[in-house]
Design brief:
By secondary structure, this protein is an alpha/beta fold. Helix content is 27%, strand content 29%. The protein is built from 7 helices and 9 strands; from the N terminus they run E-H-E-H-E-H-E-E-E-H-H-E-H-E-H-E. It has helices spanning 11-24, 41-48, 62-74, 126-129, 135-143, 162-165, 186-189, and strands spanning 2-4, 29-35, 52-59, 83-85, 98-103, 121-123, 148-156, 173-183, 194-203. Strands 4-3-2-5-7-9-8 form a 7-stranded mixed beta sheet, covered by helices on one side. The protein has a two-stranded parallel sheet with strand order 1-6. The longest helix has 14 residues, at 11-24.
Length: 206
Amino acid sequence: MEIDLSLEGGGNFLKDYFKEYFEKYNLKFNKGMEMCAGKGYIGFYLLERGYFETMDFVDINPDACEYLEDVIKKRNLQNKCRVYQSDCFDNKNIETNYDNIVVNPPNCPNEWYFYESEETQISVPPLIYVDKDWQFHKKFIKESPNYAKSLVMAECIVSSHTSTFEPMLTDTQKIKDVKMFLFSPAQEHNFLPLSSYLFTLENDIR
């Protein structure tokens, strides 16, 4: 059996942990964005549970954007959601007044992460999980103060720590509220068990 994971970056598992994180820190925002949205699991989940009033979605993959547009139409969310095809913030139509951006980005700096079993063949496109030499992270963290007051990011403890990203911060930014949790999609997708963490990155220029 072959499983298509071309738009699956873990959001279906992570959405509950984002909800737990938002509950723990009593986070609620008016205007939100999900960057690296994929199928939008995290953004739609938080929007529909009242943690955001609106939620826009950004992804580089045109197939993801087409999928998101279809979901928005089916759920009648056209007045609350927009979709931007973009590599990070390159699309100049992206607005610059977000309260918070949630992001589950590619979280490995090289292509070491690939797993295949005899029972289930899985091919995960590098676009989903590889951020070569952290180039996306460097660009995203550097440019984020121009677009949002804060970020909530999910990362993999196997390949990074918050200290990995601290050198990327500008003098307007700080990392806070690190929450560790176990992220093990092994039973459903035969991935090796991983530990992941969420953290808030605040931008002080607003």
